[in-house]
Structures are given as C-alpha cells and as structure tokens.
Amino acid sequence: MVWITLVAAGLLEIVWALALKASHGFTKPIPSVIAIVGMIASVVLLSLAMRSLPVGTAYVMWTGIGAVGAFIAGVIMFGEDVNIMRVVAAGLIVSGLVLMKVASPS
Q: Contact 45/5 with Cβ under 8 angstroms?
C-alpha cells in the first residue's frame, strides 16, 4: 500500500507541474488552483509514504516519477523537444528509480 501511495504522490507531482506551466505564472485561475491543490495533495501523500519508507527512498522515487512524467507529458502536451540526450537522461532517472526500489527494505 505504501508504494501505491508514493506512486500516487508522484503522479500528482506531474499534475501540479503541468498545471503550473498552464497557469502562466499563476495568472490563470483554474490551472493555478489545480497546481496548488495538486502540490498539497502530492506532499501529503509523500508524507504518508514516509511513515514507512526511508526519506531518501521516498523522496528520490517521488521526484523521479514527477521528473520523468513531466518530461513525457511536456513532450506530448506542449510539444517540447525530444532528443537523444533528453531521452538518455530520462532513462537514467528511470534506472535509478528501479535500483532504489530494489535496494529498498519495504
């Protein structure tokens, strides 16, 4: 259950990052509200996961899910550049997440 909570926190990080971009610096109300609510919900779920997981594991997984997810979503939704260096970088992050999960006690 703790890993589901952590993945949900990471997915909400993607939501708030995308909403933050769409808010244009908090000048658009609806994306701004989505960003703020997403931030709060993401951090609350992260804190719940940290009850059982080491802080390093939880934080790395949370930021990694958010970073790779935001990269993929940015490419799909905003037409951001895809090049070999960016794909390799995302792949390295995913590799790190897998290693962190394997090395985690829970």
A: yes
Instruction: Sort 63 into a burial class: Cβ within 10 Å, 0-12 / 13-18 / 19+.
Output: middle
Angle between the 2-22 and 55-78 helix axes, to the nearest 10 degrees? 40
Contact yes or no for 18/70 (Cβ under 8 A): yes
Beta carbons within 10 angstroms of residue 1's beta carbon: 8
* pTM (two decimals): 0.89
pLDDT at 100: 87
Q: What is the pLDDT of residues 20-32, one digit of tens each?
A: 999 999 999 999 9
